[in-house]
Write a structure and sequence with these properties.
By secondary structure, this protein is an alpha/beta fold. The protein contains 12 helices and 9 strands. The chain has a 6-stranded mixed beta sheet, sandwiched between helices. A 3-stranded antiparallel beta sheet has the order 1-8-2.
């Protein structure tokens, strides 16, 4: 689109994920200028961008539209978020989000009691604490390991969006799809090398920002549509949709997710203690509106 709107003056080469480097290397590759633009999940960049953990936490954002909006607002208003990105020579764009995280399991999950002893695929430092509080046994694995772990019995259940469960074909080894809502997350961001960004003329920056905004709006609509289709396709393939009866009780039972993230970020070092508290306060106020 950038090439089209500049009549070919700006050329963009697109490579499939992993072609130019590992996901764990993206911050260094983009920040160092080896790659001009790249995408990186927050779970892989916590050591470099701790404040981004607020974008990626469960039970805070009710849906993906809220997750995208609040993450962008967090970047725009929170100084430490901006400082971390600048320190890593990054300029962020394309604030999208994944749809709500659900569960797909080998047995039906209808109430809080069904979590007891359940081996659940999780990730990061905050999600396991949530599932421990629910009586489950968190098992941190990459999503690509989930299928085999369900087959072997290492897992009983996977914490993932309907889209993710469909793409990984988890319904082949776990037939019960839950409508429980653990909230949506902004799991990743795209970045431009900051030096490159600063070298662009204002008209190119303005055009890039406009296209990014349009892409964000398209993404918000398309991910919701695909999530619904993913559920339909899993059911058509033999999966069963199970209604979770105690959503309100679940939300009361889990630890305060904003506190969990703030504690995690503050644990990085003294320079993050005040920013973590400030972000938590900002988030609580913003979510009231």
């Amino acid at each position: 689109e950038l090439t089209r709107r500049t009549n070919g003056r700006v050329q963009v080469e697109i490579y499939q994920g992993g072609t130019l480097g590992k996901v764990t290397e993206m911050i260094d590759l983009v920040g160092g200028g080896a790659i001009d633009l790249g995408n990186c999940g927050h779970g892989y960049s916590f050591a470099r961008l701790p404040m981004n953990a607020f974008f990626n936490a469960p039970m805070i954002y009710k849906n993906h539209e809220m997750a995208a909006k609040m993450s962008k607002l967090g970047y725009q208003t929170q100084k430490k978020v901006q400082e971390d990105m600048k320190k890593n020579n990054l300029h962020p764009f394309l604030f999208g989000a994944l749809t709500e995280y659900r569960l797909i399991s080998k047995k039906p999950i209808r109430t809080l009691a069904d979590f007891k002893g359940l081996k659940v695929r999780t990730f990061g430092a905050v999600n396991p604490k949530m599932f421990i509080k629910l009586g489950a046994v968190p098992v941190n694995l990459s999503f690509t390991e989930a299928y085999g772990a369900l087959q072997k019995g290492t897992l009983d259940c996977v914490y993932l969006s309907w889209t993710g469960s469909y793409v990984l074909k988890l319904f082949e080894v776990a037939k019960y799809v839950s409508d429980v809502n653990f909230g949506a997350i902004n799991s990743h961001l795209s970045y431009v090398n900051l030096d490159l960004w600063n070298s662009w003329p204002q008209n190119l920056k303005a055009l890039f920002n406009q296209i990014s905004l349009e892409a964000e709006q398209i993404t918000i609509k398309s991910v919701a549509e695909f999530d619904r289709k993913a559920l339909e396709m899993m059911i058509a393939a033999g999966a069963e949709l199970v209604h979770f009866r105690e959503q309100e009780q679940l939300e009361k039972a889990v630890p305060d997710p904003i506190n969990l993230v703030a504690e995690r970020v503050a644990s990085v070092g003294r320079e993050y203690e005040v920013p973590a508290r400030q972000y938590a306060e900002f988030l609580r106020e913003a979510l009231k509106k």
